[in-house]
Design a protein that fits this description.
Structural class: mainly alpha
CATH superfamily of the largest domain: MetI-like
Distance between the termini: 34 Å
Radius of gyration: 27 Å
CATH architecture of the largest domain: Orthogonal Bundle
CATH class of the largest domain: Mainly Alpha
Helix content: over 70%
Strand order of the largest sheet: 1-2
Strand content: under 5%
CATH topology of the largest domain: MetI-like fold
Number of domains: 2
């Protein structure tokens, strides 16, 4: 609320909003913090199984396995050893450097794989395009991205281009298939209504078809990025000099199982964060859609 300051007997000046907004802003911030704290506390029981598994892992690595064969303990390091290795790698910058290289390759491959969206719209909208492209797609789609690694090394050599090609294959087809399905599942009455109101073809495609297929497209992007992230690590195992896959393979040659597991956990956590980010973006773009959940 806006207050007033009496400057003289005949002059009343309204107080600025900043003088009264301070307590309200602090109150709003306090409420937001309480809400987040409540959500955090409420989510703690969901991690019970994870906590029990970590405790069991710690016990097996420090007590059970050494009692059977002390030499086997190095093959299954305890969570505390892995945490120590992760902290050391973070401080040295080794983990961040390799992670950024992997993310860069994923991003470049996604830019090229995004061409699946207009192609999928064309295949779902025009039957002649679908009839021509579908046979090629159905032959190439079942081939695993990893099966292309030997050929991609011959084509591109060892390096970023080879890795990005493998990731591209992992991302492209899930986006393409989901885009086609999204276009074909649009309610025909929406298209007829747009045309009856005089909308030209390009507006029907942009405002009805694209928006109507967007939930399926976002789902395809989520699946594609996940598959591409897995394919990336496999490609880096044999054809890269940096990245998380290279980090894991290099640690294997030195029998650093703690570094291997740090790399694996990083892959899993980053993959989860990518998926969460896509879901949040999808909810922001499509608040009306229930396809991405709450």
């Amino acid at each position: 609320m806006t207050g007033f300051r009496i400057m003289s007997s005949d002059r009343i000046v309204p107080l600025s909003d900043s003088t009264t907004a301070g307590p309200e802003a602090k109150t709003g911030l306090g409420i937001a913090l309480k809400v987040w704290l409540f959500r955090f506390i409420a989510a703690i029981p969901n991690f019970t199984l994870l906590g029990l598994l970590i405790l069991a892992w710690q016990f097996a690595s420090t007590v059970w396995i050494p009692s059977i064969d002390p030499h086997m303990a190095v093959l299954m390091p305890a969570p505390t050893v892995i945490a120590s290795a992760a902290i050391s790698m973070i401080r040295s910058g080794e983990l961040l450097s390799n992670l950024l290289d992997s993310l860069r390759r994923e991003a470049v491959a996604f830019v090229f794989a995004a061409t699946a969206i207009p192609l999928g719209i064309a295949m779902g909208w025009w039957k002649v395009v679908y009839n021509q492209v579908s046979p090629v797609m159905e032959i190439l789609r079942p081939i695993p991205p990893l099966a292309w690694i030997p050929l991609s090394i011959l084509w591109f050599g060892l390096g970023d281009a080879q890795n990005e090609f493998i990731i591209f294959l992992g991302i492209f087809f899930p986006i393409l298939v989901n885009t086609i399905v999204g276009v074909k599942n649009i309610d025909p009455s929406l298209i007829r209504a747009a045309r009856s109101l005089g909308a030209p073809e390009y507006k029907v495609l942009g405002r009805v078809v694209l928006l109507g297929a967007m939930p399926q497209i976002i789902t395809g992007i989520r699946i594609g990025l996940g598959v591409g992230w897995m394919a990336l690590v496999a490609a880096e195992l044999v054809g890269a000099n940096s990245g998380l896959g290279f980090l894991i393979n290099d640690a294997r040659s030195m029998l650093r199982t703690d570094v291997i597991i740090v790399g694996m956990l990083t892959i899993g956590i980053v993959g989860l964060l990518i998926d969460v980010a896509i879901r949040i973006l999808g909810r922001q773009l499509m608040p009306w859609s229930l396809a991405l959940g709450k």
